[in-house]
Amino acid sequence: MTTVVLVTGANSGIGLALCERLLSQDVDGLQLCLACRNMRRAQAARCALLTSFPTAQVALLQLDTSSVSSVISAAREVKVRYNRLDYLYLNAGIMPNPQFDVKAFFKGLFSSNVITMFATGEGILTQKDDVTSEGLREVFATNLFGHFLLIRELEPLLCHEALTSQVIWTSSSNAHRSAFNLEDIQHFRGNQPYSSSKYASDLLSLALNTRYNKQGLYSSVICPGFVMTSLTYSVLPAFPALLWTLLMPLLWFIRFFTNTFTLTPYNGAEALMWLFGQSPESLDPKVKYHSLTSGLGNNYTQARKMDIDLETSEALYAKLLQLESDLKMKLEEKQI
Ligand SMILES: NC(=O)C1=CN([C@@H]2O[C@H](COP(=O)(O)OP(=O)(O)OC[C@H]3O[C@@H](n4cnc5c(N)ncnc54)[C@H](OP(=O)(O)O)[C@@H]3O)[C@@H](O)[C@H]2O)C=CC1
Ligand SMILES: CC(C)CCC[C@@H](C)[C@H]1CC[C@H]2C3=C(CC[C@]12C)[C@@]1(C)CCC(=O)[C@@H](C)[C@@H]1CC3
């Protein structure tokens, strides 16, 4: 029996590195499905994977997690292609229009908070969010709600008697309770939609475990650390890629003080790989698994308790269900 793995946002960065690492561990026992928004980049990713692993089974799926209709039709297609799903990696994510607070950064450099600032980006980053054509906040829709809907639609493939499945979220150490508001789950009012969406994914993972463990579905969250990808390059748009490359020795040096500077997508995928090898029943639903890299370049995974509680996770789940039903109703009305 082969293991069926679906990865969202698999055409670049951490998602693509995860696919490479999974295939280098076991080419023949895997059926990989790359669920991507940009199909041109998805084709390129598939070609690159097949060049390194010519016998691999790598399929593509069109999926835009920010769009309810795209998620529903992608899930329909998955149900036609597969009769079960063993791993669902919810990795697609955006941090649009980041605003880097240079003053706060330099102030932070000379404060006792400097390590936390480098590990979490706390206090130095905000974003300007947009609204999707379906009326949702873009960051919320992309990072959280589309994935929630995908799990709900794929329930028959994920919940099987006598078989377990794992849902694994690429969250972040930038997820802060202070950025999240239960009365404004889409973050219409603040300027930290990224942090809010990641905190919401931590809460949702807990709620999923409460609901679905009995049906064999287990959910976990990871943080890949600070990884150089298109997402992080956009934080300093004035810095060309070459400048980042020149800064690498400095970044490697900072790694001696904070092992959260994983820097490469390969290293960032460490906790995603570690979870692949775990029996899901042994995992703690209230911890986040962090990819870490030591000063000497060794990768490892560390579990750290999250600042989440059951009551808030249940309240968020109820709100997501309500939003799902409202949006599906709107979609049906449109189709009539
Ligand atoms: N880099 C870092 O330091 C950290 C990253 N993370 C998280 O890691 C995850 C991967 O990001 P990373 O690899 O860094 O960045 P990348 O920008 O390289 O990857 C993001 C991926 O998400 C996809 N994506 C974006 N929007 C959508 C959408 N609407 N529908 C489907 N796919 C979409 C992108 O595809 P497309 O080609 O279509 O744009 C791309 O494949 C994200 O969730 C991010 O929040 C967490 C902590 C730190
Ligand atoms: C010496 C360097 C030129 C300084 C770089 C400063 C900042 C641009 C980075 C320092 C810590 C980084 C960071 C992130 C973005 C870039 C920094 C602020 C994240 C917020 C990216 C997204 C995440 O999910 C977090 C885990 C990252 C935390 C660290």
From TrEMBL:
It holds the Pfam family adh_short. Pathway: Steroid biosynthesis; estrogen biosynthesis; Steroid biosynthesis; zymosterol biosynthesis; zymosterol from lanosterol: step 5/6. It is an enzyme of class 1 (oxidoreductase). The chain crosses the membrane at residues 241-258. One of its GO terms (molecular function) is estradiol 17-beta-dehydrogenase [NAD(P)+] activity. Its main location: endoplasmic reticulum. The keyword Glycoprotein applies. It is a single-pass membrane protein. Gene3D superfamilies: NAD(P)-binding Rossmann-like Domain. The keyword Glycoprotein applies. It is found in: Endoplasmic reticulum membrane. Keywords: Endoplasmic reticulum, Glycoprotein, Lipid biosynthesis, Lipid metabolism, Membrane, NAD, NADP, Oxidoreductase, Steroid biosynthesis, Transmembrane, Transmembrane helix. It catalyses: zymosterone + NADPH + H(+) = zymosterol + NADP(+); 4alpha-methyl-5alpha-cholest-7-en-3beta-ol + NADP(+) = 4alpha-methyl-5alpha-cholest-7-en-3-one + NADPH + H(+); 17beta-estradiol + NADP(+) = estrone + NADPH + H(+); 5alpha-androstane-3beta,17beta-diol + NADP(+) = 17beta-hydroxy-5alpha-androstan-3-one + NADPH + H(+). SUPFAM superfamilies: NAD(P)-binding Rossmann-fold domains. GO terms for biological process: cholesterol biosynthetic process; estrogen biosynthetic process. One of its GO terms (cellular component) is endoplasmic reticulum membrane. Its EC number is 1.1.1.210, 1.1.1.270, 1.1.1.62. Belongs to the short-chain dehydrogenases/reductases (SDR) family. ERG27 subfamily. Binds to the short form of prolactin receptor. This is 3-keto-steroid reductase/17-beta-hydroxysteroid dehydrogenase 7. The lineage of its organism: Eukaryota, Metazoa, Chordata, Craniata, Vertebrata.
